[in-house]
Amino acid sequence: MLNFFVKVLVVLLFTAAPVCAEQAASAIELFDQETGEHIESLLENSTSVPPALINLALMLSHEQVFMLYQQRGFLPVWLDGWQLKPEVETLIESLRSAGSHGLCGDDYLLAELEGLLRLQADFARHNLCLAPDNRALLDLFLSQAFLTYATQIVEGQVDPSLAHVDWRARRRKADLVKLLEYAMNNHRLPQVLEDLLPPHEEYRQLVAALNKYQEIAAYGGWPQIPSGPTIRSGADDQRVPLLRALLLKTGDLKLAVEANNTYDPLTIDAIKLFQTRHGLKADGVIGAKTLTTLNVPIEERIRQIELNLERWRWMPKNFGKRHIRVNVADFSLEVVEDGQLVMQMPVIVGTQYRKTPVFSAQMTYLEFAPYWTVPPTILREDKLPQIKSNPAFLEEKHFHIISRADGETIISPQEIDWKKVNASNFPGLLRMDPGPWNPLGHVKFMFPNPFNIYLHDTNETYLFDKNVRPFSSGCIRVERPLDLANYLLEKNLGRERVLELLKSTAPVQVPIAPLPVHIQYWTAWIGRDGLLNFRPDVYFRDLDLDIALTEPAYRVIDQLEHTPAQD
Fold it and tell me: Are 65 and 144 in contact (CB under 8 A)?
């Protein structure tokens, strides 16, 4: 304690009289060494820290904290002697605004930091410095805050493979210790923090939408529309003024209209825009589905945006100069080239029971007049019972049983004792011939992956008339396969050759230059028209993620453990 007061006296003397640069540097070095000694002690003996100094073992949970200080000889990062570096304010402002990215300041010790910084400010007003143990805590907590915040910005708050069994993501990585050292040594912390954010414009647009919705919520949200009969064009309904008030809040109605109960053309157009943004049939009729969607509270929409911001933090830096994106929740496909949308079409995705997984892969070839080899689940649950109940099923439905050994030899069904056959001992592969009966249609687009998922044509085109389309067994059916095949092949083969291939009666494989394909799941996003879109959580993946974000078993921050000192 005496040593502490001696150093405080040194500071008072320095602030009361002119000193040379060498004396000031010597004093700063002295304070840094003392702070460093306490940092080292706290890191190596965190379990024995008195409760009055906060549960340090719990707080210092990020393994890279120890690595950072060990590389520095335990010298402070954020303090110059007894004074804070300017970067502290930069970091604190970022932590305070974490909510604008759907993150929580509690993860970054913000309350503890605010308390220590107030204490530091009180001491500074009296030309005094914090005690070395508090200086050490402040420096440690700032480093922990940076590393945790940066980890969550770069990689997300949870590991997607833990939150979803069928989700694969190529997450971004960064050497955060190295980045922090660079930022502090070169006074570039603002730029480093900015560069850590997902680089995609869609992320920034969704952040702006979140901030707008948070502001709407702060002013009371939007009204709830009472239930009642369907509202159609020209109807006189006392709910119409409430409806207009809601649409003004959401931005679908641009200008206030006459305050009456008539469902007028301007309000109808606003409802059609609302319906389009929410994946509903844009007919302007306010029935049960539209009313239910209108009455989703703004708090739920805010959470939906936050969950999708988390998904953006799982995304790779680059999707590819030319690539295909499928949004499973929107039942849509986009082809993007140089950042521009060059093709868009509806798709059909897996049912809730046979969900289409989320992953990225490289499309490498197209196959025309494809065989359809029945997957094990469909064989067990659908086809095998029909084969056993109807001896003519295989011939009627254009199926053959193919040897597993060579993938070519046809096994006669008359040679099989069907009473002894089950899904596990099925004598070969069940394969359907190419033709108009084949569920893969004329062409499939192959991007090899562990899930055996691909894009393909379909012989059930009537399903595209549906607004919600989870009808497949996991693979993705595209509405306009000819257009997609032409886009991929016409430049090299010509349109006439593509048309010939589509008329093939036997399988033909055509290679292409590898093309990234990204199967994604967005329930909230900004469209290319700048409008905020929402979709129902058809696979309950929003629910899974929401649970994961509150469960320590899934969260990145709770998986990081403090690395103890080594002997």
Answer: yes
Cα atoms found within 13 Å of the Cα of residue 159, Cβ hemisphere only: 11
Mean per-residue pLDDT for 502-508?
A: 93
Cβ neighbour number for residue 15 with a 10 Å cutoff? 10
407-441, pLDDT tens digit by residue? Answer: 889 999 988 989 899 988 999 999 999 999 999 99
pTM of the full predicted structure?
Answer: 0.88
Residue 118 CA to residue 97 CA, distance in Å, equals 19
Cα(413)–Cα(393) distance, integer angstroms: 11
Place of tokens 């929402």: 534
Pairing mode of beta strands 508-520, 322-327: parallel
Contact status, residue 371 vs residue 432, Cβ threshold 8 Å: yes
Q: Are 113 and 63 in contact (CB under 8 A)?
A: no
**496: which residues sit within 8 A by CB, 6+ positions away?**
none
Q: Which of 139, 90, 148 is nearest to 130 (CA)?
A: 139
For 11-28, what is the mean pLDDT?
54
Place of tokens 């922990």: 144
To the question of domain 225-296 being in CATH 1.10.101.10, the answer is yes
